[in-house]
Amino acid sequence: MTLDLLPAGQSARIVAVDWNVLVDEEARRLRALGIDNGARVKVSHRGVFGGADPIALAVGRMTVAVRRAHAAAMEVEIL
To answer: Where is the Ferrous iron transporter FeoA-like domain (predicted)?
Structure first.
């Protein structure tokens, strides 16, 4: 399952990221925020307009907003 399909409130672990579909700057920013293989994430909520963008993720004690396209590049396993 990809992160963009994870239901709100559900916790998961990132198991793979297709970094090739992301721009290098975006990939560096996501890694700097702790969004990488092995990270535990939880979808806090989704945007309400036009495709539910952005997606708010809880990563540790932070809340990070990611684009749906970025979340679609991340494979997760439900915890």
So the answer is: 1-78
Q: In this structure, which topology does domain 3-78 adopt according to CATH?
A: SH3 type barrels. (2.30.30)
User: Measured between alpha carbons, how far is 21 from 63 in angstroms, rounded to an integer?
Assistant: 23
- Distance in angstroms (rounded) separating the CA atoms of residues 35 and 7: 18
Q: Which helix (H) or strand (E) holds 70?
A: helix 68-72
Confidence of residue 45 (pLDDT cuts 50, 70, 90): confident
Query: What is the token pair recorded at 58?
Result: 């809880």
* Domain range summary for the chain, segments of one domain joined by +: 3-78
CA distances from residue 69 to 19, 34, 55, 61, 79 in whole angstroms, order as listed: 12, 18, 10, 23, 22
Q: Is the pLDDT of residue 51 over 70?
A: no
